[in-house]
Give the backbone structure.
Amino acid sequence: MAFQQPLPKSVPPAMSRYNFKETEQKWQSHWSEHKCFEVNIDPAKEKYYVLEMFPYPSGRIHMGHVRNYALGDLVARYKKAQGFNVLHPMGWDAFGLPAENAAIENNVHPAKWTRENIATMRGQLKSMGLSYDWSREIATCEPAYYAHEQKMFLDFLQNDLVYRKESWVNWDPVENTVLANEQVIDGRGWRSGAEVEKRQLSQWFLKITAFAEELLQDIAELERWPDKVRLMQENWIGRSEGAHIRFQVSDRSDQLEVYTTRPDTIFGASFCAVAANHPISQELARTNAELALFISECNRMGTSEAAIETAEKKGFDTGLTCKHPFVEGLELPLYVANFVLMDYGSGAIFGCPAHDQRDLDFARKYDLPVIAVVAPKGAEADSILIENTATTGDGVLINSDFLDGLDVKTAKTRVIDVFEERNIGKRAINFRLRDWGVSRQRYWGCPIPVVHCGDCGIVPVPEEQLPVVLPEDVDLSVVGNPLDRHPSWKHVDCPACGKAALRETDTFDTFFESSWYFARFADPANADKGFSPESADYWLPVDQYIGGIEHAVLHLLYSRFFTRALKQCGYLSLKEPFAGLMTQGMVCHATFRDERGNWLLPDDVIIDDNGSSRTSAGTIVTIGRSEKMSKSKKNVVDPEFIIGSYGADTARLFMLSDSPPDRDLDWTDSGVEGAWRYLNRLWRMISEPSVALAVLDTARPEAMDGHVFDVYRTVHKTISGLTEDLDRFHFNKAVARIRELSNTLETLQPEQAGADWVMRFGLETLICLIAPMTPHIAEEAWQRLGHDSILANTPWPKADQALVLDDMQTIGVQVNGKLRGTIELPVDCPRDIAEQQALELPNVISAMDGKPARKVIVVPNRIVNVVI
RNA sequence: GCCCAGGUGGCGGAAUUGGUAGACGCGCAGGCUUCAGGUGCCUGUGGCCGCAAGGUCGUGGAAGUUCGAGUCUUCUCCUGGGCACCA
């Protein structure tokens, strides 16, 4: 998609094409010099905090960033025009795994790699003309940032929000390192290819579960969040009500505690099962090699819910049995089963095959009894036959002793009451949510500020010794954790007793940094603390947060938790960090493959006029469906190239015009061309208007041609409609309205009375309305129209409501629900007049075919429907 | 397996509460401008029938509610997304 911009010297300046390169640079410098977007606390003004999810500095910006920041900038500039004191900052989520990978692959230090990437990407973002307050820029890998989160961690520790426990990790025995799930491919390390082991390590956890109920309840308050995200958070937290029940294990002194959400099905129990990592399994495995083998098999299986749910249900009969709590003499065999999760509930279940599909699959495989205890409503108790589908719906209890005849809900309550009376179980609420493991055995992250002392145990690093700075003189060419291998860094004196001790060599999960960065932006230069209470009180919460749906759960939930934890530690006075959330869809592009099936870059593909495609070398190209832009499929378009060839305004306009923000967007060359052509058209309308413009600041003329007045009304309607579109995030509709207004303005004729004035008014309004989307061309046009003010500081246009509402309107007339014509009626026209006019329409008369109207439905200002 | 979202012209998408389906753009066709290509401008553009007026079908599929359904209900098919160490 080569594009040259011809600028022939012979053409006079007014006729020249819009010069985006010069213009975009000019206004970017201008805004920067005039500190247009730098803001301070101003109690007299209402604040508005717009935040886009800050990027990981991976090297170069991609189209997803362009979309995200075009959306955010539109909101920020629009709110500024509406008079808000707008905080719109940008920074870098700068710790993370890719820096370490790059270090190993390219022999470059993660710090250097990261800082260079930031410099590149900052330049790219600046070329987009985004209204950031760059004076607030932060990078989370700098001690000036992470020092404060080390302090926060220590405060969490003091407030009992942190603890240590053993937890399982993916261990790569060749690289001597812990792997992320995504680094485990088919059970092997992605780089080493070694078979991954499960290992238990002692790790730091944050008590997010302490807030589980609150985090769940408060979702209801997040009114300006997408329902989809709220639902995902709800499901993630996964509150369930049920019971813990203790089963006596035969021939042993201990009891097995199970968690169940279906205590009502207790009389249908036919086995018990524990997780592979359950203490009982572990204990038995020590003397049972076969069981140990089964457990290691379970450990090799993926830990994801999807993997567990879809895997074949397998179990190992321990030979032990559990006594049924109610049925004297009934012994339930105890299995170790691969579908029981140690992390959920108590890591043990009782199986009721008739009413749980997993249990049924298991029972069929091991030939266990299947006893129906719930009869669906209306079904005959003795006609129930469970084959291969468990019934999980409501019904009436059968075969269940004292529960017989009760519905499921009542039976649950009753049976738990009995458990509690007999002291063998109790009511329990369980959450799927687990505590947040924040330890990472990685180098490029924030050091966890504690010291391990042989005598004193775990000792927090004293506040005056913070920050614990990540050493930069590390060797990444050797396997294992560089912090652990560093010759001196971890060796310190115990802060408590002064004896030789060791630093914690784990670093924080990078979600730690992103859980509070929004607050740091309120007070980014504060050296004493993360942010002052005053700055937080003024700027927080974020009024509009914008980012990818991929963060719908973890990042957003961690931030919500972090905010509560900070509140508990006295940092903040609010619970919810993000009052409004908008999640954007992905940027997609068609995919191309050559004859051998190799992916091709869009740049390597030539589409001929007849629609056929080939490579530049002439070989055949297959065009595949549009998919999310990704390096692996090569269906990427480099934003820098687009900005260089068409300008930032074109790229931004296209990002906003073709799809609503929350849906996926197809990047197409023709769409970009369309945006580019429109900007040139707009430029022509300004520089060579079809109707000479009235002089700046002249009063509205009293005499106006009828058509001119209609156009004038359209301008007001556009202001009103577009403002509403922006408030509802219907940005693609807003762009459509801009184009409609352009079309309408071009219908003005020079000889019509008032046309010169309405043309100026219309163009100035158009420029103001498009400014948040394409700010550079708008500023230039504003200047060209004779203004010496900065458009970015200019108030948003106001519509005259009297002109927005029409006094006449077109109403559809139907006969038996089919449209047969339209009538022009005054607004709020009486029913009988509407009916009369409708019945007089020739088309209506012919459609009625001489039959009388049985009924005429008149919906005022909407429709008339004649029923015959 | 479970949960969620979405299916509207050749394409991206419009259509506040059920009330004129297809705004706006892309593409395409014809014309004008131009030495020519591109740009620009004008006109047309859901399918089918028709010279036209107009008719008829039409929002993944099937059924239902309603004077009236893209919109509500039920079933169904397809596509995409999420399901705990990428960020």
